[in-house]
């Protein structure tokens, strides 16, 4: 007999609370984080553990609060309660600029491309260590060109002229133009052709081998199957289930109830 | 009956009601309470500005349109009367003719301005109106044959409004029953009528649509209201009322010149009053006008005293000099934009609502 | 209408049509003026005035286009710069009275530098006290910055007195250079040089330096710039101060051009500046240059041909341009 969604939810909640998942070495920790936007209470005590060097997927249906979680981490929205810890430091009250400077790169759902600037200028801005274009790491750029050909092809074009998918490529390329400790990415595969999605997956796999930690919000199943190490499922502004991807992938019933789909 | 008179737009604050009543009575009986040329002039100026600022509030507070061309219409009304009286003799008929002509001119110009405002964005529009008003002022001082140039036009008011005309032998409560008295009451009742008319307009379905447009133009258009039409109508109405205020001014002063009605200082004064009083409230125009004009007239005296007291410190004395009253007004203005964003009326109303628990903090009458 | 990078990005598809407006206007005036030498004098005067107006307007358009801040009080920096110049040049009387050009130029340079410093200081206070609390609220910005200008104007009257002060040109900069029959005043040449220098610096900064990139990106998406790790607030204050310093510089030049300064000059020049940046497109430096040159030329041509319609002619110009391009000749992409 399949438990009713509400029942399951509260069962999971209480399970998660009494059995905090023993994930190794978390880089980023959210502890009972609440976020209010105006009068709306979006995050109701969100908990999240992002282990170092792994790819954590944040799943949930539309409106669950995934984007809000990411924005709260980045300080774009101030948490009204709770704690956010990064590499042991409390960053809850940090400004966005301070958070970004802790070597965290963010790719928002809206991509954040500067249409008036060329692709090259967009990349240069993201390369905070570089004073001019020639300072950017050439080897790394070549690697990016191989993954996202559009970036090389339209290097001197105003970014606003790129198609949606190409802008998406640029957005991710920007996040990886310089090494970062944590990448926070919101739905990067939207509008991308399958071949490019494969490239993106390869990129993330390569980054993982370099020790980069990734927090990813994605609907695309392939990401989960091929890259996901840890999974966190949320709904209504709180965490429902957190655990290894393996556990999640093996439990069809769990997937079905939480997301209405099977991996 | 009061409900219908005020078009269901009550002051909604006991303090406000008291203030308004006091002002109403003071203005109604001004000739008797404070006899003397200066006091009556102050009262008349208040009446004129109430209408002028209320008409500006219609545009700014209710429709959300920033236009610096308002004084242009004020000037048109004043010049209409002045020119008509100068050219066609000083009679009631020529005044009426002048009024009719100014209203027509204002109508056309406001129509053009209103339609133009939709081709360009709000910020552009504000700057353009600034330029246009400036040009109009220059024009008025340059067409000296027509407008009397820099010196302006002096004229006599119609017979029955002039001080020499006594309609009663004996004085009423010590005040001579002459044309000046009549003129004052003409202004008083006009102001009352025009203000009530404006209240009626802003509380009508038309007024509600204006506010909807102010809050969210896109949505208003999406629901089906043609923003062009409403904005233009609001612009025209606002201009017409301002023109009538100009008429009132000219009739009282029996003079008009570029500085009397077209100067940028007046535009700033109107802006200050509407902000201090409270945008989008109509009553704000009343409270603000009284406060501002009384301050303007008597602040200088106050500063003179303060300046003399500070004569030991020359820099302080210079700052407090009565010539620098605009400085302190400016400071008050900036402070009120910060601390009373909804103006005095808004603040009073918010306090009442807060006590009742309906809203949390004083909100601004406009969102931007 | 293709968006262009503040008219700065001369690259793939540069929009060259508006560049023709200035020579077109000049050529249009030639038959009306009649004599070529008079035309040359007027054109030189117009271009010089245009350059000065550009210096002032560039600051305002940068501040608005890039920070979305409407500074209706921009005129106060103009007036401050001009009045400071009277004090500095008055102080350096022996240098300005000297016949040696280099002494004169240095005196003017000193005046410009001090004016810019004072204007910057005032701008820091202005931004902190008046502008910062109302970021994002256009109506309040208009009101508060106007209030700031009133206060500033009165303070100038307190410090320097309420009457106008004469500001005469240094000795060696008086008089004109003769080109055939046309007489071009020396100071106007100086103004043109300064204006070109300012434009070149701005253009180079915006398109070739990282700060310029940051400014252009910040206009579009301040949040994203912060997410990349840059302190955008500091940047904005910097731009505001730089823009105000430029206004101060422009004030010095304007005062020398008119040979006197009044406390109301800020408000008076304000109207012209608004016309210029509306023509140019809010946020566009290139557009401001075109607008300023056109306004300068127009003012001089009509001053000669039909003085009474001078201000109106500029408004007519503005309306004509807006009918062609409702957002100005080079509107910044998404405002």
Oligomer: heterotrimer
**Number of H- or I-type helical stretches of chain B:** 18
Strand order in the sheet with the most strands of chain B: 1-2
Radius of gyration of chain C, whole Å: 20 Å
> How far is it from the N-terminal to the C-terminal residue of chain B, by CA?
36 Å
What is the tally of beta strands of chain C? 4
SSE order of chain C, one letter for each helix or strand: HHHHHHEEEHHHHEHHH
The number of helical elements of chain C comes to 13
> What is the overall shape of chain B?
globular
Bulk shape of chain C = globular
Descriptive account of the structure:
- The complex is a heterotrimer of chains A (263), B (368) and C (335).
- Chain A is built from 11 helices and 10 strands.
- Chain A has 263 residues and is of the alpha/beta class.
- In chain A, the strands form 2 sheets. In chain A, strands 6-7-8-3-9-10 form a 6-stranded mixed beta sheet, with helices on both faces. Chain A has a 4-stranded antiparallel beta sheet with strand order 2-1-4-5, covered by helices on one side.
- The radius of gyration of chain A is 19 Å and the shape is globular.
- The two termini of chain A are 21 Å apart.
- Mean pLDDT of chain B is 83; it is low at 359-368.
- With 368 residues, chain B is mostly helical.
- Chain B has 18 helices and 2 strands.
- Helices cover 73% and strands 1% of the residues of chain B.
- Chain C has helices at residues 21-33, 36-67, 75-91, 93-97, 101-131, 138-160, 186-208, 210-220, 222-227, 232-258, 265-280, 285-305, 310-324; strands at 165-166, 176-179, 182-185, 260-261.
- In chain C, the strands form 2 sheets. Chain C has a two-stranded antiparallel ribbon. In chain C, strands 2-3 form a two-stranded antiparallel sheet.
- The longest helix of chain C is centred in the first third of the chain and has 32 residues, at 36-67.
- The chains are: A alpha/beta (263), B mainly alpha (368), C mainly alpha (335).
- Chains in contact: A-C, B-C.
Keywords:
heterotrimer; B: 368 residues; mainly alpha; two-stranded antiparallel sheet; 18 helices; disordered C terminus; C: 335 residues; two-stranded antiparallel ribbon; 13 helices; 72% helix; disordered N terminus
Task: Provide a brief overview of the structure.
The complex is a heterotrimer of chains A (263), B (368) and C (335). Chain B is mainly alpha-helical. Chain B is 73% helix and 1% strand.
